């Protein structure tokens, strides 16, 4: 890796899936994996093209049960372009002799370059150079330029080149899903519209999304076409004289029936590819669009972390670009990079939106509108379990129903097991948190007072209605849930799934209730009355919310916060023994199940659960939340809690290292950097053991960016001000980034050697209020301020942080 490139030298079949994911190109509307165009889907390669929000539902027979699953669809493959000497086999790195191979991802321009040299025979070599793009300016276009050169002879060499649109693809990118039906496309038809353009149309089997694709091939030689559905094929024969280069350009347009402002996706694709300029002009416009994105999301971090963070930012922008603001889509947990998690939307937006809020607030707003459009579905889900309010699904897809599978496969044992992760009802609190954070950062009062208030109200209503009063404890309880840990889904020996009083769930539910009450009090009176009339909200219900927000039970054991009620009674696991036996124990749940045991018996977590509270809330706010709930949370209790769970977490999720690094970084603990590195390396080193080849982990990538943006700076957006309390790690003591805050574009913060520089570009906006420990600064547009930061005292403990009082935040 270098500052602006990501490079692979040599061809390694075992690494192809990982490379394909990390070399994916996209524009927020669709993305294509970085597979070699001459290679078809097989055990080594997996080309895939995915359109944001394009899902299809199929029923499969699994383990004697009929199971419905909705998947993000692998659409027709536009990449195929293969080549050979006449009468010989088609060349691929797996069938030919590769003398040299190099693949370079250019982050600055959003292009993928490859150069491969094949041995044709004892005398001749064929050099293949390709450059591809998925257009960031026109989000319906992609292009591939291929250049051929033959060396080692003095006479002309003929080369056959064949390009295809392939409609015979299936969803087969995740081995453990292969017992499920992956044939999502039907009614594949192909045709031609001229000497150089072919087309393909099809539709999804049940969602009936129509797909239109058109490809233009130019080569300086006659192009022939033929149609053998599911393929549209174009062929050209190049005559390569010594020392000359033959160029073949393939330009592709992709539309679906979900696109606005079209009548027919096939006609739209044909028209678009006909109007598209040549490759050089496409590249110029594409490069300009990327340059504009990099200016808006500028991030400068020295050292080895810098290039990795830039790669993470690149993949976030390919999945969620300004084009996403026009779509009805959520945050796919694995990006548009593969088929893991079936392209579903989880709570990963909790780790993504805080970054987007301060760079692309229009994208954050669109992602929250995805949730608002599915509010009625969430209310129906609540009614189905006998509750009022809104119960958002743990996994969401096209229409907002619960998409969590009922069974999951343990690859170690080969057994299909019940999946109870749909009981992770804390996803509603994550949505509420994102509504609040977005409105605080953007100042979007209109959204907060309308759609935001509606979601907050219904999520709060669900929590209040789910809480039951325990006379013995004198507190309200939330029973039968699963927490972020995910390992624990039932008590040992229990016949029913679910746990009681998950601390993270209860504390965040109390926060949601409190924030919703704040919003309702601050609403303009006509809007408050309107909302109450539409929802049947009355004073008695608000009194209950107030009561529940102060009395939700938070369990403790041995002087630490319990992950859930009864957690302290579970057995201790022999961690050294399992590490000796298995080495990598990140998926401890699978290991124990294969042994005939269950992780439900042990104090062992997959990922951060209780410690997520330290990720979401500043130390001062967390103290305040616990005080409101009637509990003391001092630095000693938090220190013991952090140490307890650090020793009992297997980090089976890429989000776990991120959260632990964040929590420890606030305390300037020496261990923090090890966890930050785990988060940085999660995908590039494929630490989860092959999962990156199925799609990148978008939440972890965005979270590392937010670690620099908010975690290390102590940045909070509240009370119409930017609050800063930098606590730099020695390994990341110098960094800079630009952000967008309440109409100010390109506000730049740079921290270096105890000095903070803040630049506010000239505009007609109001000054920005900056709050630092012990002082306040107002910076007007056009000003640059240099602020010396005081030396921080020695480590005050894992929960150390700004010692300031926190008043209830007011809505913008």
Could you describe the 3D structure shown?
With 812 residues, the protein is of the alpha+beta class. α5 runs parallel beside α8 (427-442). The longest helix is centred in the middle third of the chain and has 22 residues, at 445-466. The two termini are 42 Å apart. Residues 796-812 have low confidence and may be disordered.
Strand percentage lies at: 15-25%
Tell me, rounded to a whole number, the average pLDDT: 94
Helical stretch count?
A: 20
Judging from the principal axes of the Cα atoms, what is the shape? globular
- State the major sheet: 9 strands, antiparallel
Topology, number of strands: 33
Quaternary structure type: single chain
Adjacency order of strands in the biggest sheet: 1-8-9-10-11-18-15-14-13
**Which parts are unreliable, with pLDDT below 50 for 5 consecutive residues or more?**
796-812
State the helical fraction.
25-40%
End-to-end distance = 42 Å
Report Rg.
27 Å
Protein structure class: alpha+beta
SSE order and pairing:
Layout (H helix, E strand, L loop, with lengths): L4 E5 L6 H7 L2 E2 L3 E3 L16 E3 L3 E8 L2 E8 L8 E4 L12 E10 L4 E9 L5 E10 L6 E11 L5 E10 L18 E8 L4 E8 L5 E9 L5 E5 L2 E10 L5 E11 L8 H11 L3 H18 L2 E2 L4 H15 L29 H8 L4 H13 L1 H10 L22 E4 L4 E4 L8 H16 L2 H22 L1 E3 L4 E3 L25 H20 L2 H11 L3 H13 L4 E2 L2 E2 L13 H8 L5 H7 L17 H5 L2 H10 L6 H12 L7 H13 L5 H10 L16 H14 L4 E3 L2 E3 L11 E7 L2 E9 L2 E5 L8 E5 L2 E5 L4 E5 L24
Helix pairs in contact: 4-20, 5-8, 5-20, 6-8, 6-9, 8-9, 8-10, 9-10, 10-12, 18-19, 18-20
């Amino acid at each position: 890796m270098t500052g602006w490139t990501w490079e692979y030298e040599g061809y390694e079949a075992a690494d192809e899936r990982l490379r394909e994911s990390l070399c994916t190109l996209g524009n927020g509307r669709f993305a294509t994996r970085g597979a070699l165009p001459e290679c078809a889907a097989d055990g080594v390669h997996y080309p895939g093209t995915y359109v944001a929000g394009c899902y299809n539902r199929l029923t499969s027979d699994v383990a004697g049960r009929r199971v419905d699953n909705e998947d993000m669809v692998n659409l027709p493959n536009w990449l195929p372009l293969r080549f050979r000497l006449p009468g010989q086999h088609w060349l691929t790195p797996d069938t030919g002799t590769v003398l040299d191979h190099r693949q370079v991802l250019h982050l600055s321009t959003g292009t993928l370059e490859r150069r491969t040299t094949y041995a044709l025979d004892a005398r001749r070599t064929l050099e293949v150079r390709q450059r591809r793009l998925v257009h960031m300016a026109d989000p319906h276009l992609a292009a591939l330029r291929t250049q051929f050169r033959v060396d080692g002879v003095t006479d002309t060499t003929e080369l056959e080149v064949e390009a295809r649109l392939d409609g015979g693809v299936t969803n087969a990118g995740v081995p453990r899903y292969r017992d499920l039906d992956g044939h999502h496309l039907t009614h594949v038809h192909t045709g031609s519209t001229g000497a150089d353009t072919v087309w393909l149309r099809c539709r999804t089997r049940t969602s009936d999304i129509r797909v239109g694709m058109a490809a233009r091939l130019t080569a300086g030689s006659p192009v022939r076409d033929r149609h053998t559905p599911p393929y549209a094929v174009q062929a050209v024969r190049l005559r390569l004289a010594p020392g000359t280069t033959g160029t073949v350009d393939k330009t592709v347009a992709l539309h679906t029936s979900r696109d606005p402002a079209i009548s027919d996706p096939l006609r739209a694709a044909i028209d678009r590819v006909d109007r598209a300029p040549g490759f050089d002009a496409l590249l110029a416009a594409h490069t300009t669009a990327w340059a504009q994105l990099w200016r808006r999301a500028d991030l400068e971090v020295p050292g080895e972390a810098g290039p990795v963070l830039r790669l993470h930012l690149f993949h976030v922008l390919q999945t969620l670009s300004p084009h996403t603001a026009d779509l009805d889509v959520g945050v796919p947990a694995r990006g548009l990079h593969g088929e893991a998690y079936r392209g579903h939307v989880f709570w990963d937006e909790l780790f993504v939106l805080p970054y987007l809020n301060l760079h692309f607030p229009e994208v954050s707003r669109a992602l929250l509108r995805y949730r608002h459009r599915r509010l009625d579905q969430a209310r129906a889900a609540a009614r189905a379990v006998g509750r009022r309010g809104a119960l958002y699904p743990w996994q969401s897809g096209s229409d907002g129903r619960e998409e969590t599978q009922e069974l999951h496969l343990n690859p170690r044992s080969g057994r299909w097991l019940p999946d109870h992760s749909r009981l992770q009802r804390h996803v509603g609190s994550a949505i509420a948190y994102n509504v609040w954070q977005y409105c605080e950062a953007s100042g979007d009062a209109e959204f907060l007072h309308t759609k935001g208030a509606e979601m907050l109200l219904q999520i709060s209503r669900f929590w209040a209605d789910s809480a039951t009063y325990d006379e013995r404890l004198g507190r309200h309880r939330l029973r039968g849930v699963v927490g972020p840990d995910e390992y624990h889904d039932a008590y040992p020996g229990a016949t029913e799934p679910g746990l009681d009083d998950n601390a993270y769930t209860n504390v965040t539910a109390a926060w949601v209730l409190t924030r919703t009450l704040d919003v309702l009090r601050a609403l303009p009176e006509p809007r408050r009355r309107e909302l109450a009339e539409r929802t049947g909200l009355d004073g008695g219900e608000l009194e209950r919310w107030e009561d529940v927000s102060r009395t939700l039970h938070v369990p403790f054991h041995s002087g630490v916060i319990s992950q859930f009620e009864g957690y302290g009674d579970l057995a201790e696991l022999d961690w050294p023994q399992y590490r000796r036996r298995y080495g990598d124990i990140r998926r401890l749940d699978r290991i124990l199940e294969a042994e005939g045991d269950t992780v439900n018996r042990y104090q062992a977590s997959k990922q951060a659960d209780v410690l997520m509270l330290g990720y979401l809330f500043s130390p001062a706010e967390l103290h305040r939340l616990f005080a409101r709930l009637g509990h003391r949370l001092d630095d000693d209790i938090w220190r013991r809690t952090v140490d307890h769970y650090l020793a009992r977490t297997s980090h089976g999720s890429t989000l776990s290292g991120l959260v632990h690094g964040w929590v420890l970084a606030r305390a300037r603990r020496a261990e923090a950097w090890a966890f930050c590195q785990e988060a940085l390396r999660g995908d590039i080193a494929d630490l989860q053991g092959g999962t990156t080849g199925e799609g990148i982990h978008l939440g972890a990538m965005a979270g590392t960016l937010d670690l620099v943006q908010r975690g290390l700076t102590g940045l909070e957006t509240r009370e119409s001000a930017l609050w800063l309390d930098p606590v730099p790690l020695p390994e990341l003591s110098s960094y800079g980034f630009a952000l967008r805050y309440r109409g100010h574009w390109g506000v730049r913060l740079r921290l270096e050697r105890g000095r903070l520089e803040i630049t506010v570009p000239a505009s007609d906006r109001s000054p920005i209020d900056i709050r630092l420990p012990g002082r306040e600064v107002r910076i007007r547009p056009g000003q640059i301020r240099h602020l010396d930061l005081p030396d921080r005292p020695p480590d005050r403990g894992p929960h150390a942080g700004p010692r300031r009082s926190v008043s209830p935040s007011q809505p913008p």
